[in-house]
């Protein structure tokens, strides 16, 4: 697996795991804590820690927090999350993001 493919795999796994945890009614902050603890890539783990901190301590929205980590989260993904925040269609949108990353539609 080359570097770009590995990065795509890490991000898709993040969204799938977040989807499954939140579908199981795990609160978003706890879900991010679990994902962070289980992440093996240290730079992505640090990004997830930063996102969680922004949500928890600075009361940012998820889309605002993701926007601080452009290495891992594209504008397309951030806009989809913003749509989920407005509509509540989390399951559908998180799955769409994971699929789009796996297919290469989203960076």
CATH class: Mainly Alpha
Helix content: over 70%
Termini separation comes to: 17 Å
Count structural domains: 1
What is the tally of beta strands? Answer: 0
CATH homologous superfamily assignment: Type II secretion system (T2SS), domain F
- Regions with little confidence, pLDDT below 50 for 5+ residues: none
CATH architecture classification name: Up-down Bundle
Element pattern in H and E: HHHHHH
- Over all CA atoms, what is the radius of gyration? 13 Å
Structural class: mainly alpha
The whole-number mean of residue pLDDT values reads 94
Instruction: Summarize the biggest pleated sheet.
Output: none
Using the alpha-carbon principal axes, give the shape: globular
Q: How many DSSP H or I helices?
A: 6
Present the secondary structure layout:
Blueprint lengths: L2 H21 L4 H11 L3 H16 L4 H5 L8 H13 L2 H14 L4
Task: Provide a brief overview of the structure.
This protein is an all-alpha fold.
Describe this structure in words.
It is a single chain. With 107 residues, the protein is an all-alpha fold. The chain has a single domain, classed as Type II secretion system (T2SS), domain F (Receptor-associated Protein, Up-down Bundle), CATH 1.20.81.30. It is 75% helix and 0% strand. The longest helix is centred in the N-terminal third of the chain and has 21 residues, at 3-23. The two termini are 17 Å apart.
